[in-house]
């Protein structure tokens, strides 16, 4: 976020605010240390840091970057108390492929300066070695891994380091450790949430709020100013990448599915990307991970043994095999190389959930290799083990064993109109063919689904939506936070649909 620049230079001057965001001029006077940036500011582009060029069609009213909870409180009270109220969107530490925190009529509260991590007491109901870790709302997955590495602790994350921990955890949270440690929602132990009047509610005092945060807490009920998650002793870890040619997709994907049908070990994590590179052509990449139950050599050997079983079942030798003993931090650093700041370009993405990788789905993938000349890929998440166990303390209810299949087309910044069209068509062909084939499940993953494909009742169920709506009306009666996710009280705005 341009850390080499002096942040004191970022602020838009009063005359600029008066011209571009007059409703925020008084906030700048009342809270002079809060950074407020408008589109004509020379530092605006680097601060906005939008990596999907399609989202450039919409600009926020202004971006406010509080450096403390007190500054955030001042901004929230000001916007909610303004006549008329100024709608707020909340940007955490990460990113959203659809730019849903950018709304032309709203002020964006950017929380990326609010980064901290504190190790608290052990949770009484957990094992003696588990710890509670408090996270600031601006911290990302790789930042948390780096901070915990020297403490002997590890915590669940997704596999892209630039993802924000609050959004990932509260929105479901698929990841390589989900078999052993559960999804992101399963690791939330508590939170502090700022209301429109500046008060901070702790989930210790509101069990319904904790239930909502575990699956539907991305800005709906206020601003998360602290998230408490479970951290575990750092395990021995077997991890690496297995790369196969897409021409062997039938053997690789059907072989993987056969192991799923038999029941995968909870220690195993195996998510995939399917892409095209200049060196290897169309390829399937399996991110193999194994969380050892203990530090014994036996458990580490079990991981290597299971890799052998996996390769035997796939019936094809990998083009690349980097699997070996490593650390969680080292492997996530490897995965984050080149994508710690996401690939900048023209993104188009869709998402479906599937119960199985059927021959029909495999055929669709084989017929539609990812376009070249960008960073397009099909992302495949899979959940089993702890992640599929029902949990009535979480609003996240998608607990059956399933895959999330997300074609993600990325055309480079210098792409021609034709190249952009080709990449977008690729996404939509895969999405529509799988959908028309009748393979998709009704529930979905909001964070990776296009706004027009999101339906709260279908994703969460009628009873859950009713309970969430009731809590929303209780905690945010004036709807000061109308742009949270999931949307269960309003339709997506025209701004969200603009580029789709």
UniProtKB/TrEMBL annotation:
Oxidoreductase listed as a keyword: yes
FAD-binding PCMH-type domain location: 56-234
The UniProt record lists the keyword Flavoprotein: yes
Top-rank lineage group of the source organism: Eukaryota
InterPro entries: FAD-bd_PCMH, FAD-bd_PCMH-like_sf, FAD-bd_PCMH_sub1, FAD-bd_PCMH_sub2, FAD-linked_Oxase-like_C, FAD-linked_Oxidoreductase, Oxid_FAD_bind_N
Molecular function GO labels: FAD binding; oxidoreductase activity
Gene3D superfamilies: 3.30.465.10, 3.40.462.20, Uridine Diphospho-n-acetylenolpyruvylglucosamine Reductase, domain 2 (3.30.43.10)
SUPFAM superfamilies noted in UniProt: FAD-binding/transporter-associated domain-like, FAD-linked oxidases, C-terminal domain
Necessary cofactors: FAD
Entry keywords, A to Z: FAD, Flavoprotein, Oxidoreductase
Family recorded in the similarity comment: Belongs to the oxygen-dependent FAD-linked oxidoreductase family.
Protein name (record): FAD-binding PCMH-type domain-containing protein
């Amino acid at each position: 976020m341009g850390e080499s620049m002096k942040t004191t230079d970022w602020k838009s001057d009063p005359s600029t605010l008066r011209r571009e965001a007059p409703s925020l001029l008084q906030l700048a006077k009342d809270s002079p240390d809060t950074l407020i940036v408008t589109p004509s500011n020379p530092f605006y582009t680097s601060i906005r840091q939008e990596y999907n060029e399609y989202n450039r069609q919409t600009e926020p009213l202004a971006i406010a970057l509080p450096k403390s909870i007190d500054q955030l409180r001042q901004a929230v009270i000001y916007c909610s108390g303004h006549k008329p109220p100024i709608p707020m969107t909340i940007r955490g530490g990460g990113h959203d492929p659809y730019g849903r925190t950018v709304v032309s009529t709203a002020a964006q509260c950017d929380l990326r300066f609010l980064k901290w991590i504190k190790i608290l007491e052990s949770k009484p109901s957990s094992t003696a070695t588990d710890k509670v870790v408090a996270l600031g709302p601006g911290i990302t997955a790789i930042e948390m891994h780096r901070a915990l590495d020297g403490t002997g602790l590890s915590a669940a994350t997704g596999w892209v380091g630039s993802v924000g921990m609050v959004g990932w955890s509260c929105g479901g949270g698929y990841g390589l450790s989900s078999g052993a440690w559960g999804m992101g929602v399963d690791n939330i132990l508590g939170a502090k949430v700022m209301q429109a009047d500046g008060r901070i509610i702790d989930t210790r005092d509101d069990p319904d709020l904790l239930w909502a945060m575990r699956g539907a807490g991305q800005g709906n009920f206020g601003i998360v100013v602290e998230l408490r998650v479970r951290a575990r002793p750092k395990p021995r870890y077997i991890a690496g990448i297995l790369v196969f040619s897409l021409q062997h997709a039938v053997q690789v994907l059907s072989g993987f599915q056969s192991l799923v049908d038999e029941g995968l070990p909870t220690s195993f994590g195996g998510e995939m990307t399917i892409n095209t590179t200049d060196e290897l052509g169309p390829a399937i990449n399996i991110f193999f991970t194994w969380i050892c139950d203990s530090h014994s050599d036996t458990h580490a050997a079990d991981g290597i043994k299971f890799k052998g079983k996996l390769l035997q079942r796939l019936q094809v030798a990998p083009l690349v095999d980097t699997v070996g003993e490593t650390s969680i931090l080292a492997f996530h650093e490897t995965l984050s190389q080149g994508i710690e700041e996401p690939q900048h370009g023209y993104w188009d993405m869709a998402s479906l959930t599937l119960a199985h990788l059927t021959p029909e789905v495999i055929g669709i993938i084989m017929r539609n290799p990812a376009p070249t000349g960008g960073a397009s890929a099909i992302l495949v998440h899979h959940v089993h083990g702890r992640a599929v166990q029902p949990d009535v303390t979480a609003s996240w209810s998608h607990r059956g064993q399933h895959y999330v299949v997300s074609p993600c087309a990325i055309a480079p910044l210098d792409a021609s109109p034709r190249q952009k069209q080709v990449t977008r068509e690729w996404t939509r062909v895969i999405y529509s063919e799988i959908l028309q084939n009748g393979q998709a499940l009704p529930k979905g993953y909001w964070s990776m689904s296009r706004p027009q494909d999101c339906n709260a009742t279908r994703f969460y169920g009628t009873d859950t939506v009713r309970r969430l709506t009731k809590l929303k009306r209780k905690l945010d009666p004036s709807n000061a936070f109308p742009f949270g996710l999931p949307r269960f009280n309003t339709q997506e705005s025209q701004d969200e649909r603009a580029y789709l």
